Amino acid sequence: MADDATRAELERLRSAVAGEVNGLEADLHAVFEASQDSNADDEHDPEGTTIGYERAQLTAVLASTRRRLADLDEALARLDAGAYGICERCGRPIPAGRLAILPFARTCVTCA
Question: Alpha-carbon distance 85 to 72, whole Å?
Answer without folding.
Answer: 13
